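Give me the fold.
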Amino acid sequence: MQILRKDKRIKKAEAEMTLFHTVKIFLNTERAEVEQEIVESGAGIEATAVESHEVQRRSFPTSFGGNYAARGYECIRALGLVANAK
């Protein structure tokens, strides 16, 4: 967050990280039983700058609140949020 706020025009800086852990169980009348464990994670950053009468928002890696994948914390590390914060 400090990197995002270095520029005095930045009035709002946000970072979000979300992790999901889901367990699904499928059973049917033919006695099939399947258990599935899914880990999903993702993150993103966003900054809002104001100068004079102009307001601009920038986000990374996408404009939809972050990038998510069916992976663990390695997904978040691979995004390079700190390296792309400027």
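The chain is about 5% helix and 55% strand.
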